[in-house]
């Protein structure tokens, strides 16, 4: 069964159908906005990384130039631990350099053996055990390569962090001292301690471009050199999450990535290389993604809440409008059901507004017209029923008159014609007997009267045949068994009579026979009689069957033959008159008659009549019939046979 949607459901469905494209557009615009914000954020990070990398490279290059110049100073190249005057000269050079470079935290000079010769501001001895500083100094002393160490904490200082920039000290070509080593081989190294805080300040303007943007300098071993606040970032395992991109950046390749921080929020990162030959560092710029950025996230949440509220409000309004529209329609439906149920006495009340009011008025007019039509139809039906009852009564009277006339004719024939024929028959026999005896006594032989005797015998035979035909006509006009033994016995006797005519016929009785009213049993008998008569005279049947089924609440009589059949709609005239007679008799006793036939397939006539209060138990055919009234036609017919 198809489920019908209510008006509210239809309104909600319509509102949802209208909201879906709008939601799709809003979500598409929101997604595109987030993607654009993401791209803009990445572009901003790339710009910041470029600025920071260039600033850091420029700072390192300036410091490298200073250290390189110091390494070429004669006072520095000639200084050694054994000569106190040379050490003082080198210290004087360091002091002058510190005056002009505020980014320097300290300077130091190492000998060819890697031990400190002299220093200024920060003692390098405690820091030489640092693995990165040791690597840088070894590279400077052996290969003359300038390098930068990772961050180090200065001992006995207030959390001062520095990085060391080391350059090789090459021998002076003008120096001819005996201690001069082989030409081109470094004789020492000059190092400068750069203040990490000063390095951070160098790119702090770039960090202000994003309030939650983090700028971090990372070395190749994952050590955090510096970030924009001068401390390690909150995510201590940042270098582990971006180890691959950091390695690519140190190799000279910039890349963009997304990762999750310790709080599970998404962040976007740009990793750029530091273009300084001696530094294996990378610039890492990270920012929260547009969806994780707190102002954006709050705005997005508020927007989604507002969108959900708008959708909810729209659906609520759809339900409200659907209810407002459905309520008068439900009233109209209830009124229409009352009209359909025949409750036309109460006037219909107008409901709704606009089109609903017009529909209500139209239904009210329709109900008014329908009420008038129903009233007229009821009056016409009552008149038709009255006429039909009159016709049925007339038909019953006609059938009764016909049967009464048949009974009168049968009685007249039996009382008037039958005795005369019987008397003539007896007289012919008496004459034959008396003539034969008299001739024998007088002449001793009857040869002369043989022709006369033969004629009298022929007259007797004809009278006997006339008597038999007369009895058949009387039985056909009014069978006495119909009232004495019941309809079953009368039909059984008629079936036997049909068998004697040459058409094999049999009767089947199913159920316990019951006695019908006189009109009912007469109608059933006449219909069976007419059907078998048609099968014998018109259908040229070889076999016929009469089946009477007592089904408790109704009687079903079926007359079937295997004759030539016919089309009930185009039956020949004699048969059609018989069929019309059967239908009239069935209608007269309140029964239904169905005729099933087609050419070449035989005919079946089915009569059904509901059993009513007029039924009493039908006596068995073997039981003795009830005594007939003295002098009745039926009694005289039975006695005569």
Lay out the secondary structure.
Elements: H1 7-71, H2 74-77, H3 84-100, E1 104-111, E2 116-120, H4 131-143, E3 147-148, E4 152-153, E5 161-169, E6 188-195, H5 196-202, H6 204-207, E7 214-219, E8 224-227, H7 238-241, H8 243-250, E9 255-260, E10 266-273, E11 281-288, H9 294-340, H10 355-443, H11 450-477, H12 481-484, H13 487-500, E12 505-510, E13 514-515, H14 518-537, E14 544-550, E15 554-561, H15 573-588, E16 592-597, E17 603-610, E18 616-617, H16 633-640
Parallel strand pairs: 12-14
Antiparallel strand pairs: 1-2, 1-6, 3-5, 4-5, 5-6, 7-8, 7-11, 9-10, 10-11, 13-18, 14-15, 15-17, 16-17
Helix pairs in contact: 1-9, 9-10, 10-11, 10-15, 10-16, 13-14, 14-15
Tell me what the structure shows.
This protein is an alpha+beta fold and 641 residues long. 54% of the residues lie in helices and 16% in strands. The strands form 4 sheets. Strands 1, 2, 3, 4, 5 and 6 form a 6-stranded antiparallel sheet that branches. Strands 8-7-11-10-9 form a 5-stranded antiparallel sheet. The protein has a 5-stranded mixed sheet with strand order 12-14-15-17-16, covered by helices on one side. Helix 1 packs antiparallel against helix 9, helix 10 (355-443) runs antiparallel to helix 11 (450-477) and helix 14 (518-537) runs antiparallel to helix 15 (573-588). It is rod-shaped.
Q: How far apart, in Å, are the first and last alpha carbons?
A: 70 Å
Large-scale geometry = rod-shaped
Uncertain runs: 176-181, 229-236, 615-641
Query: What about the largest sheet?
Result: 6 strands, antiparallel
Helix content class: 40-55%
Task: Give average pLDDT, whole number.
Answer: 77
Alpha-beta content class: alpha+beta
Q: What is the radius of gyration computed over CA atoms, rounded to a whole number of angstroms?
A: 67 Å
Count of helix runs: 16
């Amino acid at each position: 069964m198809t489920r019908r949607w209510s008006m509210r459901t239809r309104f909600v469905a319509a509102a949802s159908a209208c909201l879906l494209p709008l939601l799709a557009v809003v979500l598409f615009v929101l997604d595109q906005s987030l993607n654009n914000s993401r791209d803009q954020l990445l572009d901003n990070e790339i710009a910041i990384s470029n600025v920071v990398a260039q600033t850091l490279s420029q700072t390192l290059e300036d410091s490298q130039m200073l250290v390189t110049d110091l390494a070429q100073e004669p006072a520095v190249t000639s200084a050694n631990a054994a000569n106190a005057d040379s050490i003082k000269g080198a210290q004087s050079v360091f002091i002058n350099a510190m005056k002009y470079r505020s980014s320097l935290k300290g300077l130091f000079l190492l000998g060819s053996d890697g031990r400190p010769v002299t220093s200024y501001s920060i003692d390098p001895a405690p820091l030489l055990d640092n693995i990165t500083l040791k690597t840088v100094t070894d590279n400077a002393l052996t290969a003359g390569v300038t390098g930068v160490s990772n961050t180090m904490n200065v001992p006995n200082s207030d959390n001062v962090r520095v990085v060391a920039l080391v350059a090789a000290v090459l021998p002076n070509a003008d120096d001819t001292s005996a201690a001069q080593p082989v030409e081109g081989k470094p004789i020492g190294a000059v190092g400068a301690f750069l203040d990490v805080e000063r390095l951070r300040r160098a790119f702090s303007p770039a960090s202000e471009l994003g309030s939650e943007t983090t700028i971090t300098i990372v070395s190749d071993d994952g050590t955090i050199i510096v970030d924009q606040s001068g401390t390690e970032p909150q995510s201590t395992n940042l270098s582990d999450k971006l180890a691959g991109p950091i390695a690519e950046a140190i190799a000279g390749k910039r890349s963009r990535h997304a990762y999750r921080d310790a709080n599970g929020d998404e962040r976007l990162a740009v990793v750029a290389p530091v273009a300084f030959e001696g530094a294996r560092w990378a610039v890492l710029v990270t920012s929260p993604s547009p969806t994780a950025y707190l102002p954006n996230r709050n705005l997005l949440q508020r927007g989604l809440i507002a969108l959900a509220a708008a959708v909810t409000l729209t659906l609520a309004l759809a339900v409200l409008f659907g209810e407002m529209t459905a309520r008068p329609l439900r009233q109209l439906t209830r009124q229409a059901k009352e009209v359909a149920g025949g409750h036309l006495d109460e006037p219909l009340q107008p409901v709704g507004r606009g089109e609903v009011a017009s529909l209500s008025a139209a239904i009210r007019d329709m109900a008014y017209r329908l009420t008038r039509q129903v009233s007229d139809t009821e009056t016409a039906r009552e008149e038709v029923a009255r006429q039909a009852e009159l016709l049925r009564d007339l038909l019953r009277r006609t059938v009764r008159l016909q049967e009464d006339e048949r009974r009168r004719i049968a009685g007249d024939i039996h009382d008037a014609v039958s005795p005369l024929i019987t008397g003539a028959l007896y007289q012919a026999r008496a004459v034959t007997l008396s003539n034969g005896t008299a001739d024998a006594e007088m002449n001793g032989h009857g040869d002369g009267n043989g022709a006369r005797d033969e004629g009298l015998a022929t007259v007797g035979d004809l009278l006997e045949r006339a008597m038999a035909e007369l009895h058949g006509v009387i039985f056909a006009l009014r069978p006495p068994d119909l009232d004495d033994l019941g309809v079953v016995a009368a039909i059984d006797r008629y079936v036997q009579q049909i068998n004697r005519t040459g058409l094999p016929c049999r009767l089947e009785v199913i159920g316990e026979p019951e006695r019908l009213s006189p009109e009912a049993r007469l109608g059933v008998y006449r219909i069976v009689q007419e059907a078998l008569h048609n099968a014998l005279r018109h259908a040229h049947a070889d076999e016929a069957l009469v089946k009477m089924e007592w089904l408790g609440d109704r009687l079903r009589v079926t007359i079937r033959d295997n004759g030539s059949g016919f089309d009930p709609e185009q039956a020949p005239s004699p048969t059609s008159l018989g069929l019309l007679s059967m239908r009239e008799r069935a209608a007269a006793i309140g029964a239904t008659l169905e005729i099933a036939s087609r050419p070449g397939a035989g005919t079946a006539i089915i009569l059904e009549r509901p059993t009513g209060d007029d039924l009493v138990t039908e006596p068995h055919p073997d039981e003795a019939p009830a005594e007939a009234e003295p002098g009745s036609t039926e009694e005289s017919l039975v006695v005569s046979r």
